[in-house]
């Protein structure tokens, strides 16, 4: 989720595409999300790919529907705020990807590829293909 107000075509296409992707994994609590994140950031794969971010912290979003994220590069950390509606792995990884790309990337292709990469590594090729095909169908620019 990026800034409210003017939503780019790319952002609209991303949201439309994600709504069509079958559920990946549902979380029951922010604690479950934090455990998932800690496991992910402890892998060798993470260390190789994203060693500028050593930890992602999960918090509940103040909004029921909107999740958001920001990086704190000075702390080598990312922070994600997950809404009630966003208590699933697709939303969590969407927000994690925002923490990993340069600020102001928004939902552009670098972000989209990072997101797809996370889905592939944590959930495998079938879930990756679900997301990839939804992105293609809705003209999401993946570079
Ligand atoms: Zn977003």
Walk me through what this model shows.
The protein is mainly α and 143 residues long. It has one domain (26-137): 2-Layer Sandwich (Zincin-like). 50% of the residues lie in helices and 12% in strands. It contains 5 helices and 3 strands, in the order αααβββαα. The chain has helices at residues 9-20, 30-41, 44-49, 89-100, 109-137; strands at 55-60, 68-72, 77-82. Strands 1-3-2 form a 3-stranded mixed sheet. Helix 1 (9-20) crosses helix 5. It is globular and about 35 Å long. Zinc ion is lined by residues 1-2, 94, 98, 107.
Short description:
With 143 residues, the protein is mainly α.
Low-confidence stretches are: none
**Rough shape?**
globular
Number of helices: 5
What percent of residues adopt helix (DSSP H or I)?
A: 40-55%
CA-CA gap between termini: 20 Å
**Using DSSP, what is the number of strands?**
3
CATH topology category name: Zincin-like
């Amino acid at each position: 989720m990026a800034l409210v107000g003017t939503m780019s075509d790319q952002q609209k296409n991303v949201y439309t595409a994600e709504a069509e992707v079958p559920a990946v994994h549902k979380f029951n609590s922010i604690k479950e999300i934090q455990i998932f994140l800690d496991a992910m950031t402890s892998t060798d794969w993470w260390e190789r790919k994203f060693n500028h971010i050593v930890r992602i912290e999960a918090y509940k979003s103040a909004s029921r529907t909107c999740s958001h994220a920001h990086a704190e590069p000075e702390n080598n950390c990312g922070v994600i705020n997950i809404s009630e509606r966003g208590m699933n792995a697709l939303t969590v990884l969407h927000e994690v990807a925002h923490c990993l790309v340069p600020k102001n990337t928004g939902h552009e292709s670098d972000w989209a590829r990072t997101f797809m990469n996370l889905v592939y590594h944590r959930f495998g090729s079938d879930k990756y293909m679900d997301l990839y095909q939804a992105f293609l169908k809705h003209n999401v620019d993946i570079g």
